From TrEMBL, chains A, B:
A Pfam match: Y_phosphatase2
Catalytic activity: 6-diphospho-1D-myo-inositol pentakisphosphate + H2O = 1D-myo-inositol hexakisphosphate + phosphate + H(+); 1,5-bis(diphospho)-1D-myo-inositol 2,3,4,6-tetrakisphosphate + H2O = 1-diphospho-1D-myo-inositol 2,3,4,5,6-pentakisphosphate + phosphate + 2 H(+); 3,5-bis(diphospho)-1D-myo-inositol 1,2,4,6-tetrakisphosphate + H2O = 3-diphospho-1D-myo-inositol 1,2,4,5,6-pentakisphosphate + phosphate + 2 H(+); 5-diphospho-1D-myo-inositol 1,2,3,4,6-pentakisphosphate + H2O = 1D-myo-inositol hexakisphosphate + phosphate + H(+)
Superkingdom, natural source: Eukaryota
Originating species: Prunus persica
Protein name: diphosphoinositol-polyphosphate diphosphatase
PANTHER family, A to Z: TYROSINE-PROTEIN PHOSPHATASE, TYROSINE-PROTEIN PHOSPHATASE DSP5
Annotated keywords: Hydrolase
InterPro entries referenced in this protein's UniProt entry, alphabetically: PFA-DSPs, Prot-tyrosine_phosphatase-like, Siw14-like, Tyr_Pase_AS, TYR_PHOSPHATASE_DUAL_dom
GO MF term set: inositol-1,5-bisdiphosphate-2,3,4,6-tetrakisphosphate 5-diphosphatase activity; inositol-5-diphosphate-1,2,3,4,6-pentakisphosphate diphosphatase activity; phosphatase activity
GO cellular component entries: cytoplasm
Class in the EC hierarchy, top level: hydrolase
Length: 205, 205
């Protein structure tokens, strides 16, 4: 939380903490790298189709940060179509990476940290059981005047129940078994749980 | 992070995570209590002079949450005066409570989570060495159209260097001593450090 030297830190635009070990922002530029170092990131979820810039890749290598790229196009014709440009399956894949604590601390970003990032954080909040009014309030806080009704509809209709049930099923199953297990048996259960988590990661609604 | 039942959670208005163990919001209402429970708060920093409502006090007692109240008046004549209504000494006292990890997880709130809360979070960001542009961006994200130039000036002119130096001095002193100390001597140092932290808590610029 506290810096030891007097160098002023510059977070990326639209930076914020989402939850413990989860951050969001617009595209990080080199002047933001000293700040990003303080977060001790383990991974970055990048939501644009454009290749990651070389100097950003260099920074990731130097900090041993894993890049998860989910190429979602920025919206082209904002007013001409009522359909969302956000693909559900891609956001679901990104959500699975996002809620896996082994990837934390993680930074989600797109270009401006408003729409694509806002949609992913929105479905995370639904996964966390937030009411829709609060999810929308948060989306709008970051999108401001650029808020899109299609994004709000995307978040509203996105189904997280199946994924949550799948995850809870696995956790509950092993939690119950491990309760009565010996130390050796617990290690075996751990390996089985890892395999089940692979299934969960390939979950499709 | 995850709820185990299907009850939808309703965070207070303008709720957000500020940093690890630090949250901000507008005034929490009873429908927000189930959500607040998930944060496992140890304390609340309340920035208004009005008495805390009985049902909120009841909730705090049931959850064993400590209340720190710093009565700062809401601004009355927004446009007639260039002076800030935020008292520096009070914000400094609140900042000292806020950065003390023994009070974490902590929720900061005022009435709407915009001005008084925005000023306290603003000086925290200066304490964390954030550049002023990023501090202002964050203030404005929550204040929106209600952003006040007097608040931004308050944050800009607030001096955190003295407090930081005082805190770092204590930490550095004991860190160095404890490095070479025996277990028994370390306990003694711990007691002395606690006393020094009292001095720090009474720090006045």
């Amino acid at each position: 939380m506290i810096q030891d030297d007097n160098d002023v830190l510059e977070p990326p635009i639209n930076f914020s903490t989402v939850d413990e070990g989860i951050f969001r922002s617009g595209f990080p530029q080199p002047p933001n790298f000293p700040f990003l170092k303080t977060l001790q990131l383990r991974s970055i979820i990048y939501l644009c189709p454009e290749p990651y810039p070389e100097e950003n890749l260099e920074f990731l290598r130097s900090q041993n940060i894993q890049l998860f790229q989910f190429g979602i196009e920025g919206k082209k014709k904002a007013s001409s179509s009522a359909a969302s440009s956000i693909p559900k399956q891609t956001i679901l894949e990104a959500l699975k990476v996002l809620i896996d604590v082994r990837n934390h601390p993680v930074l989600i970003h797109c270009k401006r940290g408003k729409h694509r990032t806002g949609c992913l954080v929105g479905v995370l909040r639904k996964f966390q059981n937030w009411c829709l009014a609060s999810v929308f309030e948060e989306y709008q806080r970051f999108a401001g005047a650029k808020s899109r009704t299609t994004d709000l509809r995307f978040i509203e209709t996105f189904d997280v129940v199946g994924l949550r049930d799948c995850l809870y099923g696995i956790i509950h199953h092993y939690y119950r078994l491990a309760y009565y297990a010996s130390k050796k048996r617990r290690l075996l259960l751990y390996t089985q749980a890892q395999q089940d988590m692979q299934t969960y990661r390939h979950y499709k609604p």
